[in-house]
């Protein structure tokens, strides 16, 4: 049955159907949204959240540095961990292939640093000075004499005789017999007095432009050997070393924070783990022009880290600066160091100490640099800068130290440890000549670097002993003096020293050849003779080692030596 509607009723019915369809579609949208509320959040489905991700600056607090040139942020940038490009080390840490192939024994390892070229300069200049002083009566110094002299210096350091007069070392009763067995005290004093490293007559002209002219050639040849023999690990320490000296020197420094206070300062870059001295540079004071050097700390770090790539450099507040960090990044090197609070690149907001809690940390970031301000105690603010760390990591320790500080504390002591181990068995002697002081430091650093190389090449060497370095130095010193003792013609008057000379000479004396025309032996007798010679050589070697071990320990004061010459 059809129903008829007039125009008004038809329009009213149509509008009611459209409204019903719209209400049904709204209910369907609401149902879908309710189902999606239980799903995991996906930022791609949320336009507003994606905009916040793309614009993190909306949540950052920014502040300018003191000089207004650097904008720091309170939030870290989206970079985590080390940059692979800047911390990939191309060189294998440890002794180089050249060092491994040439370090056959302890003496050869030491002479990787004191090269024949250096020996030649010392011998030539020392003999030149000797002829000027004594004329034709001067007995020319040769390689064996120089080796023995260096061996006695090293042995004096092993026996902790740095502050002891040389006469007491040569004393017949209380001294060490190995010293009298090697050379007379008068000859040792003569070598110490005449040892030269350049021509004294041509020195004034060279000293006009070079304050280190008296030892420059030897120093340069020695320094260039250091990086050639060892590759540092991932962490390198840069700091200053003060060689004690109170005599006259145009570039002597006063450093009240150092134990010696007065001395010759050298910049050192060394491996943070082994304390191997990788590069060194003597500080000779202000330039000859008289103008003070600007950005000296940055220049020093760039000089002593030349050749590194992928390493991290740890330095103190004398060197650390924002500009240094950027320059090192260009070489693919990162930096961690303390910063002086008067640096213009620091933001004032980071240095404010009011209302700061103890053990609190405050960070500031640029895309490549991180600065942290840490409060270890009340009114004590420590500021560090790093291009290695990219976030605000805090340790789980009770003092809540930032990871930047922990990394700095772990690697900052490389040069300080080098000073400590060198000072323990230093060969330094009392002298008024500063070139000799630098030469003594060359011997100390060379012997320690040689020990590091020898220990890493031979990790099982005397593994049962703790004082490995003392044993290394003692064996090195005895090996250096042995050639001179073997060729010595006059035996010392003291019984103990004479016993040392006779034992070493008998152990090193070659067997006398026999006349084949008058001696005819069978193969069996020849084998017996070779066995007897071998046994005799072993016994002589054992006797020599026993004598050196017992005699060099020194007799008790006021008593006769325990071993007498037969």
UniProtKB/TrEMBL annotation:
Tell me which InterPro entries the record gives.
PGBD (IPR029526)
Q: Which residues form the PiggyBac transposable element-derived protein domain?
A: 108-451
**Listed Low complexity bias regions:** 516-526
Region (Disordered) residue spans: 14-64, 506-534
Which segments show compositional bias classed as Acidic residues?
Answer: 23-41
Name used for this protein in its record: PiggyBac transposable element-derived protein domain-containing protein
């Amino acid at each position: 049955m059809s129903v008829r509607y007039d125009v008004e009723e038809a329009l009213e019915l149509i509008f009611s159907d459209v409204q019903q369809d719209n209400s049904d579609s709204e209910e369907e949208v609401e149902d879908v949204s309710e189902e999606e509320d239980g799903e995991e959040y996906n930022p791609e489905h949320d336009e507003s959240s994606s905009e916040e991700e793309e614009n993190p600056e909306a949540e950052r607090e920014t502040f300018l540095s003191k000089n207004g040139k650097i904008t720091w942020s309170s939030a870290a940038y989206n970079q985590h961990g080390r940059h692979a490009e800047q911390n990939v080390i191309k060189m294998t840490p440890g002794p180089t292939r050249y060092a491994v192939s040439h370090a056959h024994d302890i003496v050869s390892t030491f002479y990787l640093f004191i090269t024949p070229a250096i020996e030649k300069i010392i011998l030539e200049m020392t003999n030149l000075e000797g002829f000027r002083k004594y004329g034709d009566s001067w007995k020319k110094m040769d390689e064996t004499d120089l080796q023995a002299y260096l061996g006695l210096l090293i042995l004096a350091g092993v026996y902790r005789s740095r502050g002891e007069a040389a006469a007491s070392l040569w004393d017949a009763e209380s001294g060490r017999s190995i010293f009298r067995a090697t050379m007379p005290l008068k000859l040792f004093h003569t070598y110490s007095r005449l040892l030269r490293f350049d021509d004294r007559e041509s020195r004034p002209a060279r000293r006009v432009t070079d304050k280190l002219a008296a030892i420059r050639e030897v120093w340069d040849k020695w320094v260039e050997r250091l990086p050639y023999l060892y590759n540092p690990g991932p962490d390198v320490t840069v700091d200053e070393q003060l060689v004690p000296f109170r005599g006259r020197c145009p570039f002597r420094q006063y450093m009240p924070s150092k134990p010696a206070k007065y001395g010759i300062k050298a910049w050192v870059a060394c491996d943070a783990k082994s304390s191997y001295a990788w590069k060194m540079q003597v500080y000779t004071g202000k330039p000859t022009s008289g103008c003070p050097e600007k950005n000296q700390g940055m220049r020093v770090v760039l000089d002593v880290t030349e050749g590194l790539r992928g390493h991290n450099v740890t330095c103190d507040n004398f060197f650390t600066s924002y500009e240094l960090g950027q320059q090192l990044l260009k070489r693919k090197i990162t930096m961690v160091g303390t910063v002086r609070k008067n640096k213009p690149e620091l933001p004032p907001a980071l240095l404010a100490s009011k209302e700061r809690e103890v053990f609190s940390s405050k960070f500031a970031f640029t895309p490549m640099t991180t600065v942290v301000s840490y409060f270890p105690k009340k009114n004590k603010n420590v500021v560090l800068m790093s291009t290695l760390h990219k976030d605000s990591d805090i340790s789980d320790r009770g003092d809540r130290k930032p990871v930047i500080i922990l990394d700095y504390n772990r690697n900052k002591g490389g040069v300080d440890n080098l000073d400590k181990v060198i000072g323990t068995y230093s060969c330094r002697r009392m002298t008024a000549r500063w070139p000799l002081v630098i030469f003594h430091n060359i011997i100390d650093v060379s012997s320690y670097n040689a020990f590091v190389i020898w220990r890493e090449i031979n990790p099982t060497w005397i593994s049962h002993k703790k004082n490995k370095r003392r044993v290394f130095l003692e064996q090195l010193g005895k090996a250096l003096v042995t050639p001179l003792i073997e060729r010595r013609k006059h035996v010392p008057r003291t019984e103990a020293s004479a016993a040392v000379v006779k034992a070493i000479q008998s152990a090193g004396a070659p067997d006398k050849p026999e006349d084949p025309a008058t001696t005819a032996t069978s193969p069996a007798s020849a084998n017996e003779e070779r066995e007897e010679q071998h046994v005799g050589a072993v016994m002589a070697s054992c006797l020599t080692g026993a004598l050196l071990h017992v005699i060099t320990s020194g007799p008790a004061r006021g008593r006769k030596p325990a071993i007498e010459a037969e």
